[in-house]
Amino acid sequence: MWANETALLGSYVLSIGGIIGIMGGLLKNFMFWLPIGIYGLIFGIILVILEYPRGRKNKGNTAERRFQSCTATLLTKLPFVDNYYFRAIAYFIVCIPSAIIVPTLLGSVFVIIGSGIYLGAACHNEKWAPVSARTEVRSQSADVTQPPSRPPPRLPQNVNNPNQI
Amino acid sequence: CCPRRIRRILDKNIKFHRMCAYMIVLMTLIHYFAHSFNVDFFTSAYTSKILRKRLVARLIQIGNAPNETYLNPIRSNVFSVGAVFLLTGGWTGVIITLSLFFMVTSSVEFIRRSYFEVFWFTHHLFIVFYGFLVVHGISMQVRGQTAASLLVHDPKRCSLINPALWPQNNCPTPVFAGSAPMTWKWVIAPMVLYVIERIIRLVRFNQQVEILKVIKHPSRVIEIQMRKKGFNAEVGQYVFIMCPQLSQLEWHPFTLTSAPEEDYCSVHVRIVGDWTTGLSKVLGADESGNEVLPSWKMPKLAIDGPFGTASEDVFNYPVAICVGSGIGVTPFASLLKSVWYKNLNPEHEMVLKKVYFFWICPETHAFEWFGDLLAYLERQLAEIGRQDLIEYHIYLTRGWDHKQHTYPTRGWDHNQ
């Protein structure tokens, strides 16, 4: 879970670093930045899409991110993404080329840290699972959409003093 | 001491903390990206393409001879990413940014709610953050010409002249200096205040807390009555409690449920997680222990507090409307008890004449102890004829579950 947060923030910073790299790369002095900046931006955006849906917690309800259902359905169709070993190794390999210029260095270091945490999570046999929709609790009683037609029961000793509970 | 409008600002302290944190993150990103251009300017000055400019070539040489001060903190041709780590500002910046990164990612609400220890322990990286922030600029690597040098060497004029001809043209070698670190001036006051607060907590940890009584209430609530020398609280304040036997690092906040007029202080603790379960066990109040523990077997507790909340001002006004929902009703236990005690004292006419009390909770199960307290107070006030002092409105929001809806038809049996 925490790996997801770190990798997501890292991918945001990587994308911004990529934009800075592109903007700097358009200057005469820093032309070397331009290809790495484009690489950083593209992979930053891919990582954002991969990391944005939050996986399901093992117990309890999971708070979803806003609009995460759009990309979550995509993730269920991709082959290797729910395996955290794959995520750890893939993110590490992806970030090495973007670590050679300074603007994208920050984002790639963050994503590499996220991949390290994913490796730890993978060793604990965690996986990514889509968050299921919260099941409605259906009361077995009669139709509860109507307000009760009778007041709540009042025991004899309660009737005299309405302030007592 | 201070007017109420100013004291109210202190209620929003966590919001202010978060605003500061967002600003720190934003400024860190801007600072980093700006300096990434800076570092590349420093390192690319050594590449052959740039070295063809004579001014740049001369400027990076200044500082190599003895008695000269340098302009470019990078003194030889290195790779730009490596230069980040060569500069003192660089590697301290890396440590600062990494600790900020860990703090920010573990502070999102999801992690705080579900994995609180991750949040709590990574947040203590702020010590690393502030330590390295203060020394971040210690090598004074952002440099410019000194004022004295600007008088004798005018950069506007001399930059247009071939640097090899500077001595003839009245351009002596410029002298550079860096600006001294200034962050410590901003952060020293809060750091000192924080250290003082931790020292106070340490002193309070060593003060003895005597446990007078432990009472088991229904629905997994225990009441701990304690006494500590020199402890005074207003109504509704809260304390942090620590039990070294359970954990040396965990201080948990609990609202005081005792009135200031009583000679002990009490908290009601609901047994929910592992710390509270451990607490009930060492106090002898869990399911297995039904015997009373002698006082020498009682665990050592430490109290830090009391800390204030909004309920302190209630005695200054003639009418008070108190709204509590769920666990938020605990300060009102202390408040109502204190109202009762103040009423017993006929000489002091209370400013407070009427309390409207609204209690909203899913069901009364978890707060049966409070319901008992309310009933007791109601009876006491009726005895002295002041039952109109407190008016209760209680709302149960969970509605009827599938068992309760049959009560009106079957006739509600209290024992079922």
Discrete helix count of chain A: 6
* Count of β-strands of chain A: 0
Rg value of chain A:
25 Å
Q: Which structural category fits the helices and strands of chain B?
A: alpha+beta
The chain pair forming the largest interface, with residue counts per chain, is: A-B, 42 and 48 residues
Shape of chain A: elongated
Number of helices of chain B: 16
Largest sheet of chain B: 3 strands, antiparallel
Rounded mean pLDDT score of chain A: 81
The total domain count of chain B is 3
Q: Roughly how much helix do the residues of chain B carry, as a percent range? A: 40-55%
Query: What is the subunit organization of this protein?
Result: heterodimer
Distance between the termini of chain A: 44 Å
Q: How can the largest sheet of chain A be summarized? A: none
Share of residues in helices of chain A: 55-70%
Structural class of chain A: mainly alpha
Entry keywords:
heterodimer; A: 165 residues; mainly alpha; 6 helices; elongated; B: 416 residues; alpha+beta; Elongation Factor Tu (Ef-tu), domain 3; Rossmann fold; 3 domains; three-stranded antiparallel β-sheet; 16 helices; transmembrane (chain A); cell membrane (chain A)
Can you describe this structure?
The complex is a heterodimer of chains A (165) and B (416). Chain A is mainly α. Chain A has helices spanning 2-25, 33-51, 68-77, 84-98, 102-123, 156-160. In chain A, helix 2 (33-51) runs antiparallel to helix 4 (84-98). Chain A starts with a helix and ends in a 5-residue tail after the last helix. Chain B has 416 residues and is an alpha+beta fold. Classes of the chains: A mainly alpha (165), B alpha+beta (416). At the A-B interface, helix 1 and helix 5 of A face helix 2, helix 5, helix 6, helix 7 and helix 15 of B.
